[in-house]
């Protein structure tokens, strides 16, 4: 039943004549506005009403009347929610000795009350009227135009909730992501039907581990352990490729971001259409859109990391080639996921699964060593699968395997060598924090001296 509903909703919110007509008309200043609007009538009725308009829909007044008649304003499907486990001054904040830092942290703590939302019950009863995907528990939104949960945002949100001692809210955040895996097979980019075309960095397993370390709630961990395994299998089945030796035998799997959509992203429709405006070949246009969606799956949307690194179109977004990049951070995440799942199965007493995931962890470490590690520079790099070589360029992601501990336990020289690499690159001298890249000519947000706290946190933790 859910598959049928999603298929119908996709004809309105993901592709099709209604989406094209509204987005091409520039009726709303933001492409995301329309695809966040809920339906007043079921999808079949709405599609038939649009078809009945025929060529008259080219008149902006007719189209606007159709939208006003058949859609509600965005945001009506959510309710502001006051978290019951929020307290004025959790004891963890007493650990912050500096008065100014403690005051700043408490200010952030108070923002939880402004950003918590709950999905209206009607979304569950009538999912066929909403682009918002139903989840059963309250969650935290980023704010602004982002009115839904986002996958890898939730990783750092959970860390903050745990520090704020909001354990029930934390559990609800995890349960919502587990609900996505249970009903859709994976965690989508965010909580909208149009995000079901892609995921984001797979951090649900570390989230569960963080929750366990913060609460000791073993019963809950064992409850969601099958979900963690199911999500892991999604990445193995949908995002992995075999690395073969000279005899054609598989040495280990490697992972790439690889969304296969062949249309513009609904929430960024006009921007994606503008990018391919000068590309006449439809196959080439579709390939660009697939590469863009895949870059959005990385969480780094956008960065020169996914663009051509040479030639006249270097750093040009039209040269985007995400599929060709084997990302060091994604493979590090999959590495740590295998290690955590193995340890959780050990706690549960399923030793066959322990052996399975321990073997996968060892293969992942081998993959990191043989595919990503550059012995000369003393750091990990992305691997260019087309050119069969490292992308020998600084990105802050080069150091993320330190966070994932994707190297042998007895190896105490690797962290020091990575630190020396960062010293040589001069990235430790930036006053605003670690730069995301050194592509100073880039205008992308995941580049140059834009310092992203999530990345700095992971490097610092490593």
TrEMBL record:
Domain of life, per lineage: Eukaryota
GO biological process: trehalose catabolic process
Keyword Ribosomal protein: no
A Pfam family assignment: Trehalase
SUPFAM superfamilies found in the cross-reference section: Six-hairpin glycosidases
Keywords tagged on the record: Glycosidase, Hydrolase
InterPro entries: 6-hairpin_glycosidase_sf (IPR008928), 6hp_glycosidase-like_sf (IPR012341), Glyco_hydro_37 (IPR001661)
UniProt key word S-adenosyl-L-methionine: no
EC number: 3.2.1.28
Record field: catalytic activity: alpha,alpha-trehalose + H2O = alpha-D-glucose + beta-D-glucose
MF-aspect GO terms: alpha,alpha-trehalase activity
Family: Belongs to the glycosyl hydrolase 37 family.
Protein name: Trehalase
